[in-house]
Design a protein that fits this description.
The complex is a heterodimer.
Chain A: E1 9-13, E2 18-23, E3 32-38, E4 45-50, E5 55-56, E6 61-64, E7 70-75, E8 84-91, E9 103-108
Chain B: E1 4-7, E2 10-13, E3 19-25, E4 31-37, E5 43-51, E6 54-57, E7 65-67, E8 73-78, E9 87-94, E10 105-106, E11 110-114
Parallel strand pairs in B: 2-11
Antiparallel strand pairs in B: 1-3, 3-8, 4-5, 4-9, 5-6, 7-8, 9-10, 9-11
C-alpha cells in the first residue's frame, strides 16, 4: 500500500461542504483510493473509492488529481452526524492494508 | 441480514489467561479480517483470511492465532494475554471480486482489557 498523509483534525460548519484532503504521492498505477469513516468507536464504514476518475455516490464525492498524488473527499452538506474520523487508504490487494490515524472531522452547529 | 457480528462485546482478562474472539458474517463473503485499534490510533491488521481453511499474517500478528474452519466464521485467539493486548478488536469481511473493490463490512468491535 502507498503511504497516505492526512491532517489530524478539521472543523466544518453544519450545512457547509467538508473537504478532507489526502496525500498519496507514492501511489502505484493499480492502487485505488478508498475512504472510510469511523463514528464514535463504532466499526469503520465504507464511503467511496476511485482509481483515476472523480466519483460520486449518495454519501460523498471523491476528487483525485490528474497525477493521482492526492485526493479530496467532499461531504457536500455536512451534518452533525458526519462528525467522525475519516480514513484515506491507497491499496490494490486485500489483506495488507492498515488504517492510519485519519482525520478527525468535527461538524459544528 | 445481521451483517458482521462479534462475540463477546466486552471482556476483561488477567495476564496469562487465554480467550477466543468469534467473528461471524452472513453475507457469504470470502475475505475476513481481524484488526486492533488502540486508543486514539488507527486500525492495524492482525491476521486475515482469503477463504475457508486459509489464513495469513497482517501487520501485527505476534501473540495471536486465527482459524477459519467455516466460511462464515473467523476466530481470533489469544493464548497468553498480555496488558499490551488491551485494545478494541474489529472484525471485517468483504466479497471476492475480480475488481479491486475494497468495501469491507465491519463488526461492532470487542473491547478487551488485560490486567
Amino acid at each position: 500500500d502507498a503511504k497516505t498523509t492526512q491532517p489530524p483534525s478539521m472543523d466544518c460548519a453544519e450545512g457547509r461542504a467538508a473537504n478532507l484532503p489526502c496525500n498519496h504521492s507514492t501511489i502505484s498505477g493499480n492502487e485505488y483510493v478508498y475512504w472510510y469513516r469511523q463514528i464514535h468507536s463504532q466499526g469503520p464504514q465504507y464511503i467511496i473509492h476511485g482509481l483515476k476518475n472523480n466519483e460520486t455516490n449518495e454519501m460523498a464525492s471523491l476528487i483525485i488529481t490528474e497525477d493521482r498524488k492526492s485526493s479530496t473527499l467532499i461531504l457536500p452538506h455536512a451534518t452533525l452526524r458526519d462528525t467522525a474520523v475519516y480514513y484515506c487508504i491507497a491499496s490494490r490487494y486485500a489483506g495488507k492494508s492498515t488504517f492510519g490515524d485519519g482525520t478527525t472531522l468535527t461538524v459544528k452547529p | 441480514n445481521a451483517g458482521v457480528t462479534q462475540t463477546p462485546k466486552f471482556r476483561v482478562l488477567k495476564t496469562g489467561q487465554s480467550m477466543t474472539l468469534l467473528c461471524a458474517q452472513d453475507m457469504n463473503h470470502e475475505y475476513m479480517y481481524w484488526y486492533r485499534q488502540d486508543p486514539g490510533m488507527g486500525l492495524r491488521l492482525i491476521h486475515y483470511s482469503v477463504g475457508e481453511g486459509t489464513t495469513a499474517k497482517g501487520e501485527v500478528p505476534d501473540g495471536y492465532n486465527v482459524s477459519r474452519l467455516k466460511k462464515q466464521n473467523f476466530l481470533l485467539g489469544l493464548e497468553s494475554a498480555a496488558p499490551s493486548q488491551t485494545s478494541v478488536y474489529f472484525c471485517a469481511s468483504r466479497k471476492l471480486s475480480d475488481r479491486a473493490v475494497y468495501e469491507q463490512y465491519f463488526g461492532p468491535g470487542t473491547r478487551l482489557t488485560v490486567t
